[in-house]
Automatic annotation (TrEMBL):
It comes from the Bacteria. Residues 86-181 form the Phasin domain. It holds the Pfam family Phasin_2. Residues 1-21 have a biased composition (Low complexity). This is Phasin. Transmembrane segments: none annotated. It comes from Aureimonas glaciei. The lineage of its organism: Bacteria, Pseudomonadati, Pseudomonadota, Alphaproteobacteria, Hyphomicrobiales. Residues 1-27 are annotated as: Disordered.
Amino acid sequence: MSNTTSSKAAESAKANAAEAKGATEDMMAAGQKTAQDMMNNAQKATQDMMNSAQSMMGMDPSKATETFRALTQKSMEQSKEAYSRMKTAADEATRALESTMEHAHQGSLSLSKKAIEAMRSNAEQAFSHLEKLMGAKSFAEVIEMQTGYVRKQIETATDQSKDMQALSQQVAQEMMKPGREAFQKAADAAKH
């Protein structure tokens, strides 16, 4: 029971880690898109500058300088905006990863506490059963006690498994929440 639950928890943790990794990769892709947008804006500004310079060949040089300065300023503003978006996305990805790791740690502690509580309960029941067996007057009474004990252990194991499964699902949901939120925010930002 404990190995199966631990295996399920490990599988769930692996799946959650994969989802967090996917969300981080998506955020990095959004950052790369922002960087590409910066490059495209810089190329466009350069092209606009070249076109303006070519059209001004017969014009006053002070106007060419003024146009060049305006284009450079616009390019710098666009670059700053793109950098700001990329930095914000990276900061959000970092916060989401930190939050995911914190949730994973807390979930692991909760699962460990629940497993220790189940083991302690099982051990107490076993010792209590042994004490009762020592006081048995006949073999028939021993068989009756043993049958009742085994039935109770099966019920207890079933209940403990259900509790561990529910806790594992809760931990998995809590662990995935920051990654899901960060991914949604990045997807929304990429649309705009």
